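Run: sequence + iron/sulfur cluster -> complex structure.
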Amino acid sequence: MFEKIFYEKNIENHPKTQFLLNKFSQTPNMAIDRVDDIFGRVKKPYLQKRTNLNLFIGEKRGQLVKETPAAYGLLGEPHYYFIHSYNCLYECDYCYLQGYFHSPDLVFFVNHEDILKEMESVVKINKEKGHKTIWFHAGEYSDSLALSHLTKELPQYFDFFKKNPEAKLELRTKSANIRELKELAPLKNVIVSFSLSPKDKIKDHDLKTPPLKARIKAIETLRELGHPIALHFDPIIYGPCFKEDYEELLKSLMKVMKPKDIKYISFGVVRFTKEVYHQVKKNYPDSKIHHQEFIKSFDGKVRYIKPQRLWMLQTIKDLCLNNGMKEEQLYLCMEAEESE
Ligand code: SF4
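>> structure
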């Protein structure tokens, strides 16, 4: 799986480091001072992740829990994210990570104890401010579940959220890797949110991810076990059968869950920073993503033109409402009302 493993000397004896070194005992490894000394120091082409992938194991330093950008989650409630990992095994052709780090190598941070300590302070501060719900999002620079059988942090977070019912955790994923979650007693405030697209869009764009059928099966299993489920229709990518594709997707979903079982659904039309868009053109020149025209929009990001975006969002919103979802379950992700 990995070409080489680099681990920071200071966390060599951490149980998670030891677990990984034992698990990959056949893989050459090397002790280093700091992940930052090597990771991304020399630019490694993104697509080398297909043939040559290293793993770095380290300690996350600096601010461990950060406020999310505006319009990230349900409005009116504070939202934070934390970083436990960099990069991803999957290869969605629109992935923003391809323009973010200088390397596609995976980094696992093992000091979840420190992240949880910082979360505790964030909860305390927000409670003092009178906030009744405080959101934490995992998976900002990676997928929350895809490698959770290796990163093994979920029990610690479940323990924390059990003790802090006013805090909510969103585990965002495109994977169907639920084996760790199956071992944990569900909590009302730990929500597994699946990013979904129509089946052909997954085939065309979400390279190496589980197909729609596997993700829906994972949703069904988790729902039956009692884990709260949310959905992201994000990124929405235009195609000739756009409406029919989402109708079919909703039909498949409604076979395994009722509208009221969905905690929320967010929608976001595909968008890129200028740098990521450049990388997408370079790495995936034949992607169907280039079949549509993009413009530089109000915040410098590259998007479809506004009338198209609004039409797409409204179409999917109407489909959800027609399928029995309520207005208050739906929200738009990263799309300001006044945007151009
Ligand atoms: S699952 Fe998310 S992080 Fe992984 S490649 Fe796809 S978009 Fe990127």
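>> summary
The chain has a mean pLDDT of 94. The CA atoms of residues 216 and 252 lie 8 Å apart.
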